[in-house]
Amino acid sequence: MENWLNAGSGFTNIEFQFLIRQYDGTSQVKINRPNTEENRRIFNYLMANKRTIEDAFGAKLEWDPMEGRRRCRVGKTIKIGGYLSRTGRTDIIRVMAETMARLENAVEPLLHMAVDGQNQRTPISAPRRKVKADDRPVIGNLPDVFLWSKIGIETQGIDPIVRRKELERRSGNGEFWWGIGEKAAPVRVSRMYEKAQSRVVCFTKTRNPARGRSSGTVVVWSHYFDRNILHQIPRNVVITSFKYERYFSLVCRTGSPLVKRRDRGAIYSGQYENLLTGNRNFGQLTTFPVSRFADEEVGIPYPIEFRARLRPPHCVELKYWRRLTKDEIHMLNEVSELGRTVPDWLEFAARIRAKDRQLG
Question: Are strands 145-151 and 200-205 parallel, antiparallel or unpaired?
Fold first, then answer.
C-alpha cells in the first residue's frame, strides 16, 4: 500500500511526488501526461542528460520508463523506514524532504527544456472554468499558471541589474533574490500556490514609465522575516532599492543564465487573467499570478527577460536598510559592468554586507 503527496512542477501532469510505503519511501518526479509518446520523449530527454542530473543531485537515481504503462518516473528510494515504523518518523520526513529538494534542483532546469521541446499547442475547446494548473494544457513554453513580475526601468536600466543578479545566481547554486515594492506580493504568491501549486515566475519589462522613477537614495537591505522570525539575508545576496518604507523579495532559482542570449518568448496580455480575481485588466499591478484562458496570442506582447522557480521562503518582507555611500554606489556600478566574475561579486558582497546590523 502506498500513500502519496504531489507538488506541482508548473507543467501539466508533471509532478514532484512523495511516496511513503510500509517500510520505505520515494521522492520522485512523475511524468504522467495523457499522451504516452510525449511522456517517453520527456523522459528520454532527461535520460540523455542523466550524468548532468545525477552530478547535480549528488548520487545515482532510479530511472524507470515503466514499460507498458503511460507514465514514467525518476526518483530516489529512501530505505530508513515507512509509515509502519514506530520510531524515527521525523527523520524519515526530513530525509525525504531533503532528497526532494536536491532532486528538484537537479531536474528543474532540464525539465523546462524537455517540455519546451515538445512545443505542444493544445486548443482549448471546452467552456472556460476555474481549474488547477495541472488540469490545463501547456501551450508553447509557458505553464498555464505562473507569477508575472514586471521590472521597473530604473535610472541605470535593466541590464546592469540583470548582470548583478546573474553573478549572484552563479555564486549561490542557482539562487537569486529579486526585490519588489508591491506590498500584496507575499499574499499573492501564497494564494497562487494554494490554488494551483505553481512556483514558476516570469520576468518582463514594465510598459509603465512611472515604475522607473527613483528617489535618488539607494539603500541595501540586510534581514528578512519568514513566519514572523527575523533572519539575515544570505551573505552572497545584495538587495538594493531606492528608499521604501516597506520592501519585499522573491526568492528564485534557475539553472539557466539570466542574461538574455536568445528569444525567450513573450507573455500576451490578451491570453491571461488574474488568477485570484479573474480580472483581465492588470492596471498598475507589477507582481501577480496569472492564469491562461485563451489559446490565441492576442493583446500586448511582453517579451520574457528570464524565468525561474520560487524557492522557500518564496516571497519575504525585508527588514533593516542603510544608505549606500557614494563610494559604495561606485562599487555597485563597477560590479555591474560586463566581464565581471563570481569572485568579483563575492568580494563586492562581502564589503557591502560587512556593515549589516548585528542583532542579539
Answer: parallel
Residues 297 and 160 in one domain: yes
Same domain assignment for residues 172 and 97: no
| 167 lies in the same domain as 312 | yes
- Per-position pLDDT tens, the chain of length 360: 567 888 767 677 888 899 988 888 999 999 999 999 999 999 999 999 898 888 888 899 999 999 889 999 999 999 888 888 877 777 888 888 888 888 887 887 777 677 765 443 333 233 333 333 333 333 346 888 999 999 976 545 789 999 999 999 989 888 999 999 888 999 999 999 988 888 999 999 887 655 444 556 899 999 999 988 999 999 999 999 987 678 999 999 988 888 866 677 899 999 999 999 999 888 788 999 999 999 888 888 999 999 999 999 999 999 999 999 999 999 999 999 988 899 999 999 999 999 887 765
Which phi-psi region, left, alpha or beta, contains residue 122 (left: φ > 0; alpha: ψ -120 to 50)?
beta
Strand extents, DSSP E, the chain: 3-8, 14-20, 25-31, 62-64, 72-78, 145-151, 175-180, 200-205, 218-226, 229-232, 240-242, 248-253, 266-268, 272-274, 287-292, 301-323
Instruction: Specify if 169 maps to a domain.
Output: yes
Shared domain check, 207 and 312: yes
Domain that holds residue 66: 3-116
Task: Record the pTM.
Answer: 0.64
110, 45 contact by CB (below 8 A) = yes
Beta bridge partners of residue 175, listed in sequence order: 253
